[in-house]
Amino acid sequence: MRMKRLFSLALGFVFLACTVPVGLSAQTSSADTDKKIADLEKQLEAVRAQIEALKTAPAPAPAPAVVAVATPAAAPAANPLAGITGVLGGVSLTGLVDAYYGYNANHPAAGIGHVGNTATEPFQFTNSNISLNLLELQLDKVPDKTAPLGFRVAFGFGQAMNAVNNGNGDVASVLPGAAQYLKEGYMSYMAPIGKGLLIDAGKFVTPAGAEVIESNQNWNYSRSLLFYYAIPYYHMGARAKYVINDKWAVTGYFVNGWNNVVATNTGKTGGLSIAWNPTKKLSITENYLGGPRDRTITGNNSVWNHLTDTVVAYSVNSKLTLQANLDYDLDEGITKNHAGDYTGIAAYAKYAANPNVTIAGRYEYFNDHDGFATAFKGQHMNEFTGTLERRVAGHLLTRLEVRHDSSNQNFFQRGASSYVKGQTTASVGLMYVLEPDAK
Fold first, then answer.
1. Would residue 201 count as lying in a domain?
2. DSSP per position, 258-308
3. CA–CA separation, 339 vs 335, rounded Å?
4. Residue 214 falls within a domain, yes or no?
5. How far apart are CA 208 and CA 310, in angstroms?
6. Which are the contacts of 114, defined by CB distance < 8 A and separation ≥ 6?
């Protein structure tokens, strides 16, 4: 501001100076000229006085700075695992708490029956009881090319883990200590081969089947007949996966066998999985496992067991998804000079009524030709299940399910000692899913 005023006064001085005539005409008298010069000198003195006053005057105080007050941005959704993830340094933590109330219309007596109280449902075998299906905590460090080492450790407690680690008749020994609660535990390495070859070594769940151990990751609350009778739960050994492109992936397996941390023979089971995604809507996975599976634990490596497993999933639209699972198992010698096999197929449909409500249905047929899976030779079983899921909150799920199983034989327990050809059950499941991206 001060400099502007000095500049203006200087311009005025120049203007006044320029108005002084260079020469006076002959008609102008000397008196008039002297008077004009005297007036100009007075004006000039006034301008000089103002300039001197401005030089000695204190500078004006600067205008106060305007501080912009930012409007607070909307806070991002709270991540319940943010603090833990920060402490773990890149290791993710996920978990599940899964409890249920189960009802069996046959009212089987406690402790009697083929599998706990309710046949065909080892994970939810209790009747008229509130029970813990699964409490799980899992740590993951996913490897990549920049950090090639990783691992997974997953511990589980509840009826599901009891069935997984002590069921199916294939565990070679009683698992010591905390090992009975280990669902998965393996190391990972991303080998610098091509786009990256992912190698895992340890205990991991089977690649076979359309369903998994965790209820929230399946469409129905209970598991299928194929999940319990047709495929293994887990393997101990190594696997290597290579993703060729966005449509093809191949995985190879070299493991002890089925559901055995300690091998029952000196032979090993090999396997291959091929995943094909021809379109964004369609996916097809083919699995094969073959090797000496000695059910009698005699160390016999001469007879092999072969399992083929096919899973096809198709997304009709944003609301409706269909899925099918086909299993065939052949054992070269369950008895002397006699092979045994079984076949099963399951069909699924899931409809998302809205983001919080989902309806799912399942039908399956299981043919145990030689009693290889269920110990009932020539058994034919059918199963229908309807499930309603409601997401109560971001991490809380509820499921209401009704299921009916039937057989051509008296397979299902009623009361204390009788057996019938059918069984109807109902379950109410409550699941809290601990994961960063739950909606």
1. yes
2. SS-SS-SSS--EEEEEEEE-SSSSEEEEEEEEEE---TT-S---SS-EEEE
3. 7
4. yes
5. 8
6. 374, 375, 411, 413
Measured between alpha carbons, how far is 230 from 343 in angstroms, rounded to an integer? Answer: 8
Q: How far is CA 169 from the centre of its chain?
A: 31
**Nearest-angstrom CA–CA distance, 419 and 430:** 31
Phi, psi of 254, deg, nearest 5: -140, 100
Overall domain count for the chain: 1
Asked whether 97 and 432 are in contact (CB, 8 A), the reply is yes
Question: What does the block give as tokens for 98?
Answer: 């899964």
- d(C-alpha 337, C-alpha 372), whole Å: 15
Query: How many Cα atoms occupy the beta-carbon half-sphere of 150 within 13 Å?
Result: 21
Q: DSSP letter string over 198-259? A: EEEEEEEE-S-SS--SSGGGSSSSSPPHIIIIIS-SEEEEEEEEEE-SSSEEEEEEEESSSS
Q: Phi, psi at residue 244, to the nearest 5°?
A: -75, -50
Instruction: Write the single-letter amino acid at 243.
Output: V
Q: Torsion over CA of 19, 25, 31 and 36, rounded to 10 degrees?
A: -10
Q: Answer yes or no: is 25 within a domain.
A: no
d(CA 152, CA 80): 20
For 377, residues 6+ apart whose C-beta sits below 8 A from its C-beta are: 368, 369, 370, 371
Tokens of residue 194, six digits = 């091509």
Q: Are strands 282-291 and 129-141 parallel, antiparallel or unpaired?
A: unpaired
Q: Tokens at residue 358, please?
A: 């989902």
Identify the CATH number of the domain in which residue 133 sits.
2.40.160.10
Q: What does each of the 439 residues of the chain score in pLDDT, given as a tens digit?
A: 544 454 454 444 444 444 444 443 444 455 666 676 677 677 767 666 666 665 555 555 554 544 444 444 444 555 555 555 555 677 999 999 999 999 999 988 765 444 457 888 888 888 888 999 999 999 999 999 899 999 999 999 999 998 898 755 444 445 556 678 899 999 999 999 999 999 999 999 999 999 999 999 999 999 999 999 999 999 999 999 999 999 999 999 999 988 888 877 788 999 999 999 999 999 999 999 999 876 665 667 878 899 999 999 999 999 999 999 999 999 887 555 567 899 999 999 999 999 999 999 999 999 999 888 898 999 999 999 999 999 998 899 999 999 999 999 999 988 888 899 999 999 999 999 998 764 4
Q: Please report where in the chains the tokens 């293994």 appear, as a residue.
A: 232
* Residues of the domain holding 265: 91-434
Rounded to 5°, the CA angle 89-433-155 comes to 65
In whole angstroms, give the CA distance from residue 16 to residue 44.
8
Q: Tell me, yes or no, whether 53 lies in a domain.
A: no
